[in-house]
Amino acid sequence: MLFPKKVKHRKWQTGRRNPLKLLRPETRGTTVAFGTYGLKATTPHRITSNQIEAARKVLTRATGKGGKMWIRIFPDRPVTAKPAEVGMGKGKGDPKHFVFEVRPGRVMFELDGVAEPIARDALRRAGAKLPVKTSVVTR
Q: What would the 3-class secondary structure string for the chain be?
């Protein structure tokens, strides 16, 4: 699982809940930069480190020894939660896990060194492990 080694702030502020801002397309990381094929998000969502790991396992199996894979997202945002059956008040909960907030247009994974049908199938299966709708893009 991916998580930061060291963080400047243990807990982040929640952020505004404006759904229109989430629908705005991403401005960074929107093109396939390293590989030949990429998995691009088409909807916004928070992706946890467990979900990134599940998608990585699918892609690693497909690429084998010949191919190369890049993970273009890193979960650095802490999500806090209070334990079950704890009353209101007494401060904010402890960090539970880390997420990456994906907006539409972000290329999350890239592949190279494998045939096109294998790459497309692997990226499609990796997209099924994620809570966002995805599309396979080429360079």
A: CCCCCCCCCCCCCCCCCCHHHHHCCCCCCCCCCCCCEEEEECCCEEEEHHHHHHHHHHHHHHHCCCCEEEECCCCCEEEEECCCCCCCCCCCCEEEEEEEEECCCCEEEEEECCCHHHHHHHHHHHHHCCCCCEEEEEC
Question: Which CATH number describes the domain made up of 22-81+95-134?
Answer: 3.90.1170.10
pLDDT, one tens digit per residue, over 17-65 is: 887 887 889 999 999 999 999 999 999 999 999 999 999 999 999 998 9
Cα–Cα dist 68/34, whole Å: 10
pLDDT in tens, 53-76: 999 999 999 998 989 999 999 999
How many Å is the Cα radius of gyration of the chain? Answer: 17
